[in-house]
Amino acid sequence: MRKSTRALVGMLVLDALILAGAAWFVMNIRNGASLTVPPAKAISTVTTIGGGAIGIVTGILLVAFFVHRKRGN
Question: Helix H segments across 1-73?
Fold first, then answer.
């Protein structure tokens, strides 16, 4: 597998893991398993941090993809 392909696959896997983790936290907050005050603010914070993490991971790995592709890997 080429390095550029590995960068794209890694990006997809990491994005999926972050999304699953954020969804799990939101479900716990909605079901009352995680007690927070107020729940709406906690859900907003979790989704904001999850979205930011996905953006950072995607940006870094897209740059890696293009660098590897430019070098012929």
Answer: 3-31, 39-71
Percent of the chain with pLDDT over 70: 100
Q: How many CB atoms lie within 10 A of CB 9?
A: 12
**Cα separation of 55 and 62, whole Å?**
10
Asked if 21 and 50 touch (Cβ cutoff 8 Å), the reply is: yes
Half-sphere exposure of 51 (CA within 13 A, CB side): 6
Asked if residues 54 and 45 have their Cβ atoms less than 8 Å apart, the reply is no
Regions of the chain where pLDDT drops below 50: none
- C-alpha 22/C-alpha 57 separation (Å) is 15
Displacement of CA 8 from its chain's centroid (Å): 13
